[in-house]
Amino acid sequence: MIVSHLEIKNDHEIRSLSHLLLEWYQQHQRDLPWRQTRDPYAIWISEVVLQQTRIDQGTAYYHRFLKRFPRVADLAAANLDDVLEVWQGLGYYSRARNLHKAAQILVAEFGGQCPERYSDWILLPGVGSYTAAAVASIAFGEPRAVVDGNVQRLLSRLWDWEDEVGSKASVHFYQTTAQALLSGHEPGMFNQALMEFGSQWCKPGIPLCDACVLRAHCRSAERGTQRDRPVKRRTKAVPTEIWAYAIVCDPSGQMWVRKRPEHGIWGGLYEFVPRALYESSTDRETHRISISHRLTHKILQLELSIFVLPDARGWVGAPGLICLPQSDWSVRAFPRPLSAALPQIQGRMSS
Hints:
Elements: H1 11-28, H2 40-49, H3 55-68, H4 72-77, H5 80-87, H6 94-110, H7 118-121, H8 129-140, H9 149-158, H10 168-182, H11 187-200, H12 219-223, E1 240-249, E2 255-259, E3 270-274, E4 287-294, E5 299-308, E6 321-324, H13 336-348
Parallel strand pairs: 1-5
Antiparallel strand pairs: 1-3, 2-3, 2-6, 4-5
Helix pairs in contact: 1-11, 2-3, 2-8, 8-11, 9-11
């Protein structure tokens, strides 16, 4: 049963909370580049770039992406390899692939323009309720509340909400509460105020309660439960998978690679030769590099065995493999851990 949580705070208190949030935001908002525009394309790119990414890192990628693909039409017309190359280093490459697909849909169905309504955004590949609400509210003023991790944390503490994040009751609670707070205000500014306060003030771990402008309205501060909110789901043990690669190369920098399938982990990116595809009775492993890489639901233990041949092209690779000259390493999109290993591989080709 979903509790009637809004009864905990009356209309006057809801209005007071909203006013305090907006007042705080107008005084303390950070000067971020995507806040200087109402261009829905730029706002969309910023929202996707900043998913699972720190702002200090994401800002450089935001500028880089818009410089390379300044309009929806430019992104739609680009080769996917070029999009992935610009995205390289951000991880979660499905975001880049979905951006590319969505841009093509916008060109085909919207004449290269961004839609104004949440109901249209939510139908695009890779666009969830948060991103759709953010773009529609900030760029077009649609009164649709956003709910991200910062908003969940803030609302959980204000109402001392005890249900686990992700439960049916919690999903309803966050969305309806945020919508009630938004009512009657400029949607884009209020949504940004809500997220900014959660990010900069009502922080994970130990929030800044002593000087908090919302303290008088906060049930968790009153009850001392701030560190326990929000209630997170119990986490399962993270499995480890071993991925073994053969680095088949030569002193000139030629190296065999292949492009991964479009779907799945690292879809559309380049990787080294899977170890099972390289069997030789004469070539000996010269070096080995071990890398541990954390994904959302697993840990990859990458074992890279380096085989330096006199001439890499002397090996007849399996179907789908290509022999890449060193000059092309930087223009091919490799997953972050494999890209980080390239300088080590280069240093051991001639040693």
